Amino acid sequence: MKTTKSPTRSGGKGSKTHAPKGAGGRAGGVSKARKPGRIPVRGALRSGVTDRAALAPAPRPARGDLAETRALALAAIDAALDKKALAPVLIDVSGMASYTDFIGVVSGRSDRQVDAIAESIRMAMKARGRMALGQEGTGSGRWTLLDFGSVVIHVFYHPVREFYDLESLWIEAPRVPIAVPAESTISEPESYYGAL
Question: What b/e string do you get for 45-66 counting C-beta neighbours within 10 Å, with b at 16 or more?
Answer without folding.
Answer: eeeeeeeeeeeeeeeeeeeeeb
